[in-house]
Amino acid sequence: MIANAVFVATLAFLALIFWLSREFVFLTAWRALILHAYLKTIALYCALLFTNILGLTIWIERKFFLRDTGRKLKHFDQEIHTGKSELSAEILSRFSDQEEQL
Known about the structure:
Layout: H1 2-23, H2 31-65, H3 69-82, H4 89-101
């Protein structure tokens, strides 16, 4: 999930950067002066912006792609503990070993 969120956030961030580079063409004459004076500030702002886009992407993924995960896992856990599941013997033996250790 994190890898997908980083990928989507990177795409969104790059799309925003490319769009802004077209919008700020008029600043090209002062590019060296702006970068010399404000490079740290621009880099900090870009890092914070990327972090916020990443957080938004993770929130969206959790909200829409992990819907009802707890309910599904609870149902799966109940099937394992009642023995009425069609799981392989290897998986069932792993879960029974973990219960004995607890």
